[in-house]
Specification:
Elements (H helix, E strand, L loop, with lengths): L4 H21 L10 H20 L3 H6 L2 H24 L2 H28 L19
């Protein structure tokens, strides 16, 4: 499966979040970062960045996209939001785990979805692509 640029960026961000989470879970974080809130805030920030990069489509795509995909990713997004709030407010390690699981699920679902869309998209030749409107070019 060849990843699009946006999915490749999201993959890197989620991988870094997974490393941060695993390092926290093993108790190997540096002492200044070794709290649920700090590690969780890093994971959340990376998750938001990954989502902005690949998971969240444009509004037009959102309104005309696959409803099952939209419903599933919305539910997972709400789970991640609720768990993130609980993690930050209650300093809950279980909530941090829920955030990480939701993030991994969102990443996997969106990457596979984008891959399927790219595979099913017809290839457009350069002759079919619209040309720039040259009548408006001033000399």
């Amino acid at each position: 499966m060849k990843l699009q640029k946006r999915d490749l960026i999201a993959t890197c961000l989620v991988a870094v979040a997974a490393v941060v989470y695993a390092t926290w879970a093993m108790g190997a974080m540096p002492s200044s970062l070794d709290t649920v809130r700090v590690s969780g805030a890093i994971v959340l920030a990376l998750g938001f960045a990954a989502s902005a990069t690949a998971v969240v489509p444009t509004f037009g795509q959102l309104m005309h996209g696959n409803r099952a995909y939209l419903a599933l990713t919305s539910i997972l997004g709400v789970v991640a939001l609720v768990a993130g709030v609980q993690m930050l407010v209650g300093s809950s390690g279980a909530a941090l785990t829920a955030v990480m699981v939701a993030m991994l699920a969102l990443w996997l679902i969106s990457t596979v979805h984008h891959s399927q869309l790219a595979k099913n998209r017809p290839v457009q030749s350069t002759a079919d692509q619209p040309r720039a409107d040259r009548s408006r070019v001033s000399v």
